[in-house]
Every structure is written in structure tokens, then in C-alpha cells.
Design brief:
This protein is an alpha+beta fold. Helix content is 37%, strand content 24%.
């Protein structure tokens, strides 16, 4: 068993000759001894002599083997983490080096390229990738009128850069190549991922923008209402089947208006357009829906309150809470004329633009609202707590739950727009224990909490906060 773990030693004829001579000598001596014992009176003496001769022969063989053994000279163990020096490594060290490279020496990449729709094009790509020791984990094909878009998930040696991959693909006839780093989440096969997104969308209408974002990759999604708060048309009409315009997809929003998906760095394919349209159609057929889960939360003072998801069915209760709030509280929340506050509620409570948590007392009265709003490439959090229920830990509990939702949705950060005098909101943000950035914009304080170590920065024609400050606002999922 142990011999299989080591390399085969060189074979030498001298050792075989010595062993063969020793064997013949032993046989001859044994035969002579047997004949003498049988035919002569000195049998015991001859037996002793034979034993001595055989012992001497065995000793000579052992001495010869030790003197002329062909093991490698003693020394430090070769470093199997490198190759190309000395004799070929044995099979076991070679396997160890490969395992170490798989564990620490590879990188996941997502690569997309366009090739001619002719036999052998895909085989050419696979061949050049194999020459570069690149492993193809998954492959999708997107047919076009003038070619085929091939999308790969690759595991490549760490030394291979994105530029190296692009040059390799170009040498095989690929054009319009796009490469970006991938992670373990991309290892899920496409059918499974699409089914999971469809399930999330079916359970919660607020998941549609996030599902589209995960389906189509790094893009910006906006849900533009049909009309503004003042009744002015905002969104142009879109055909029922939607519109595909290179790097932009426009689909009719089931709740009214238009869903716009933008990905300036990479055109959409008809296959991606069909998937997005099917997801929106599923949302439309299921109609308005919000998970009905409820959590009972005990305040430090001992009172129990219920935290649940809210939607437009809670519009009347939210307006009643507004009437019980002071002008100061409403002013801190909406940063504008207090008498217009009710106009925003229909938009804020819509699942299309985010998620809303409501806090209600055992009697069913609404006393607080917390909003997580998809705001272009960023995510906004906002709180409103009725005056009589402030400073009881309700705002901090709502904010903690909203941030947990943002983390679950894959957001890199959340921000709150407030006034510097709103010490309660600032304290709640600091209580998250997350890295915070403070910035003054247009006379208001913007506090940003970073949820991920390395935020992903995307580009657009103008900042998402400027978009939010338009008359109605345009909320989306990044």
C-alpha cells in the first residue's frame, strides 16, 4: 500500500545479478549439505557450516543493498507549491498543489461576448479558455439576428486578469466582450435563480424591482407613476408587450405607470427582455399583495405593540395618524409644507416603491410608520412616530427592522434625510452601530449608513437624490 504513494525507483541490473548469484549459491550449498548428511557421518557439522554460509550470504546482501541503494539523498522536502525545477514531482505532491490552487489561487468571472452564429464558434471559445486553464462553470446563449451572445461563469487562475480574458476571447473571434468579477451567489444555475425570484415576487409585490435587479444584473430600475401628485402626466404610455431599446427596457407597471430598466454599460438581449416581461406579467396577474406576518414587540415600559407590513389598505389609518401628529413632527418628517403631507401617503404606502412597516397598539390604532424606499441606485429610510409614542424605542426598533430588510435585499447602504434638529432620528441612526457618513444637502442633513464593506458605485446622468426631489419622485431598485 505504501509503495503506491511514492515515485517508482530506477531499476539496476547489478542488484539483480547479486541476488541471483546469492540464490544459486544457497541452493548449491543446501544440495551439497543434504547429500553429505545423507551419505556421510559428519552431518551435524555440515549443517552448522551451511547455516554459517547462508547467514554470511544474507549479511553480504544486506551490506550491498545499503551501500548501493538509490533513494534520494537526505535533504529538505521539495516545495510543491512551485513547478518547473528538478525531476518531475510525484503524483501525491502534484495533487496537493492543485488542491491548494483551487482553494486560494482562482477567481470567479462573469464574461459575455458576441460571436458569429456559425458552427464551431462556441467550440473555439471553449478551446482558447481551456488553453488558459480556465474552467467553464455555466454557459448561457442569447440568440441575436446577427450572431449569438454567449455568457459564461468562469473559474480562472488568479494571475489571469480581465484584460487577459478579453484578449483571449478576442483571439477566438469574440466581440463586444464584457467581463466582471463574480461571487459564490452566481454559482446558482439560471433556472433555479429565476424560480426563486418568481417565488419572491409572488409572495410580496414589493419584491418586483429587486427581482428584476437580480435577474438582469447591475442596473437601475425606476417605477414612474402615471401621474404626479398634482395630476400631471409623468409617464409616457408603453405597449402591453413592452419596449426594448438597446440598453433600456420599458414595461407597463401593473400598479400604473411605467417600469424602466437601464443598463448603460451592456445592451439587453431579447432573452433578457422576455424574462423581465414574464416576471412583470406574473406580478400583474397576482395583483396587490403584502405578507401578513405580524410581530409583537414589548416596549421597555412593558407595553406590547404589533409590527407588521403596511400597504395602501392602511391609507385611512395613516391619515388619521397624521391628524394626531403635531406640525413640528410632520415638518421634521416631510421637510416641507405640513398641509401637503397627506398627498405623499399613497405613494409611500405603495409596495411598488419600497416596503412599509406599521406599528399599531392592541386596540388597532396606527402610531408609527417606517419606510424603506427604493431610490434609484440607493435606498432611503424614513420614520414617523406619533407624538405621544415618541422616545419609547419605537423608532429605533423600526429602523433596525428596515435596515435588516435592506441587508436582505442586497443593498449596500441606506440613507435618511432629516434636519439637524431631529436628534431622535440621528440617535437612531447612530444606534445601528454601522459606519455613518454625514452630509448637508439643500439645508437638510443626509445620514448614510454603509451596510457593505465595499459599496458598489454605479453611474447615471444625475444623482438619485436629485431625482427624488422632483415633483413626484422616481423610486427604483439598484
Amino acid at each position: 500500500m505504501s509503495s503506491s504513494k511514492h515515485a517508482r525507483r530506477p531499476h539496476h541490473w547489478r542488484r539483480d545479478l547479486v541476488e541471483l548469484a546469492a540464490l544459486f549459491t544457497a541452493v548449491a550449498v543446501a544440495d551439497a549439505a543434504a547429500n553429505t548428511i545423507v551419505h556421510g557421518p559428519d552431518g551435524p557439522v555440515l549443517l552448522g557450516v551451511s547455516a554459517a554460509v547462508m547467514a554470511a550470504t544474507a549479511g553480504f546482501h544486506t551490506w550491498w543493498a545499503r551501500r548501493h541503494r538509490h533513494d534520494a539523498p537526505p535533504g529538505p522536502t521539495p516545495d510543491t507549491s512551485h513547478t518547473g525545477h528538478g525531476a518531475a514531482p510525484s503524483p501525491a505532491p502534484a495533487r496537493s498543489a492543485t488542491a491548494g490552487q483551487d482553494a486560494n489561487g482562482t477567481t470567479l468571472w462573469r464574461l459575455r461576448t458576441t460571436v458569429r452564429d456559425v458552427p464551431g464558434s462556441l467550440a473555439g471559445l471553449c478551446t482558447v479558455l481551456a488553453r488558459s486553464r480556465v474552467d467553464i462553470l455555466t454557459l448561457q446563449t442569447h440568440p441575436l439576428s446577427d450572431g449569438t451572445v454567449d455568457e459564461f461563469l468562469l473559474r480562472a487562475p488568479a494571475a489571469l486578469t480581465a484584460a487577459d480574458l478579453s484578449r483571449t476571447i478576442a483571439a477566438a473571434g469574440g466581440r463586444g466582450t464584457w467581463v466582471e468579477r463574480a461571487d459564490a451567489h452566481d454559482l446558482v444555475d439560471t433556472p433555479t435563480r429565476v424560480l426563486n425570484l418568481a417565488t419572491r415576487t409572488a409572495l410580496d409585490a414589493a419584491e418586483l424591482p429587486l427581482a428584476l435587479r437580480q435577474l438582469l444584473g447591475r442596473c437601475t430600475i425606476h417605477s414612474l407613476p402615471a401621474t404626479s401628485l398634482g395630476g400631471r402626466p409623468l409617464a409616457e404610455s408603453v405597449p402591453e408587450e413592452g419596449v426594448l431599446e438597446d440598453t433600456v427596457i420599458r414595461l407597463p407597471d401593473p400598479s400604473g405607470g411605467v417600469i424602466t430598466v437601464e443598463r448603460p454599460y451592456l445592451p439587453f438581449t431579447p432573452t433578457e427582455f422576455a424574462r423581465a416581461r414574464a416576471l412583470v406579467e406574473l406580478d400583474s396577474r397576482l395583483g396587490p399583495r403584502v405578507p401578513g406576518s405580524r410581530d409583537v414587540f414589548t416596549l421597555p415600559e412593558g407595553n406590547e405593540i404589533t409590527v407588521r407590513r403596511a400597504d395602501t389598505d392602511d391609507l385611512d389609518a395613516a391619515r388619521a395618524m397624521h391628524e394626531r401628529c403635531s406640525a413640528h413632527t410632520l415638518g421634521l418628517r416631510y421637510h416641507g409644507p405640513v398641509h401637503d403631507a397627506d398627498r405623499y401617503l399613497g405613494h409611500l404606502l405603495s409596495p411598488r416603491y419600497g416596503r412599509t412597516l406599521a406599528v399599531q397598539t392592541p386596540s388597532g390604532r396606527l402610531v408609527a410608520l417606517g419606510h424603506l424606499l427604493w431610490d434609484g441606485d440607493e435606498t432611503e429610510v424614513a420614520l414617523l412616530v406619533e407624538d405621544d409614542w415618541q422616545r419609547r424605542g419605537i423608532g429605533a426598533e423600526l429602523l433596525r427592522r428596515l435596515v435588516a430588510m435592506a441587508v436582505e435585499a442586497g443593498c449596500d447602504s441606506v440613507y435618511a434625510v432629516t434636519q439637524a434638529s431631529n436628534t431622535g432620528m440621528v440617535a437612531a441612526m447612530r444606534g445601528l452601530g454601522l459606519p455613518l457618513d454625514y452630509q448637508v444637502e439643500e439645508g437638510t442633513l443626509v445620514v448614510t449608513a454603509r451596510l457593505a464593506p465595499t459599496p458598489v458605485v454605479t453611474h447615471g446622468p444625475h444623482g438619485p437624490r436629485e431625482q427624488k426631489r422632483e415633483e413626484q419622485g422616481s423610486y427604483g431598485a439598484a
